[in-house]
């Protein structure tokens, strides 16, 4: 089965940045990730999710200069992450299918650490001392479930690509990205919380 993915506009980026950033995002999406079978499987799901809300968000950004400036700050790390992921894709240029998986995993890990891990870590620092055992228990359970999801998707992904089963690719690539993002976030958050807690103990003993 042939996967056909349209090339819609990057609405939020278009409303926030100028043409260089938008052109880079389109090139990375269409000419790199979207050029591979595994990448197109993921983009079917991603586009359905992204374009369900992006027109409204883009309209809000375009009509408010303050919102545009705030969004530029918020999206700067994302642009940098995707540039690194694009370089990773180029490093595996001999096998574009593998390059797409590597770039996607790298982007997921970095996005999870930056956009989810940091705020979760700040929140964790506030509750870690009072509820250390509970926080660690929840973190272990989440990591176990996410690890199983990551392994399952890693097994299903090559099967979907070899046998060209679109539904399997859509499910496996989306699960792989979400699991890697969340694992990175929980790892970053727990690392921040535990290190701050250890630092405070060391300081109190000195």
Notable features of this structure?
206 residues; mainly alpha
Offer a concise description of the structure:
The protein has eight helices and no strands. It is an all-alpha fold and 206 residues long.
Blueprint of the fold:
Layout: H1 11-16, H2 19-32, H3 37-50, H4 54-63, H5 65-91, H6 96-127, H7 132-162, H8 166-205
Give a short account of the largest sheet.
Answer: none
Percent of sequence in beta strands: under 5%
Low-confidence stretches: none
Which structural category fits the helices and strands? mainly alpha
Helix content: over 70%
N-end to C-end Cα span: 66 Å
Radius of gyration: 19 Å
Which series of helices and strands comes N to C?
HHHHHHHH
Specify the overall morphology: globular
Q: Give the tally of β-strands.
A: 0
| Discrete helix count | 8
Number of domains as seen in the coordinates? 1
Mean pLDDT across all residues, rounded? 87
């Amino acid at each position: 089965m042939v996967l056909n993915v349209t090339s819609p506009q990057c609405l939020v980026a278009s409303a926030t940045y100028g043409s260089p950033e938008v052109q880079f995002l389109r090139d990375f999406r269409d000419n790199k990730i979207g050029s591979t079978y595994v990448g197109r499987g993921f983009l079917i799901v991603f586009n359905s999710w992204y374009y369900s809300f992006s027109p409204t968000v883009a309209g809000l950004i375009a009509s408010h200069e303050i919102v545009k400036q705030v969004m530029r700050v918020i999206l700067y790390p994302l642009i940098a992450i995707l540039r690194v992921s694009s370089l990773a894709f180029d490093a595996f240029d001999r096998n574009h299918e593998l390059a797409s998986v590597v770039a996607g995993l790298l982007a997921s890990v970095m996005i999870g650490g930056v956009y989810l891990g940091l705020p979760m870590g700040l929140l964790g620092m506030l509750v870690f001392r009072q509820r250390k055992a509970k926080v660690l228990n929840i973190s272990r359970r989440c990591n176990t479930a996410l690890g199983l999801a990551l392994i399952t998707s890693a097994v299903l992904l090559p099967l979907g690509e070899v046998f060209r089963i679109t539904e399997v690719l859509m499910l496996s690539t989306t699960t792989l990205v979400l699991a890697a993002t969340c694992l990175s976030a929980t790892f970053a958050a727990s690392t921040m919380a535990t290190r701050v807690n250890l630092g405070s103990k060391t300081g109190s003993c000195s």
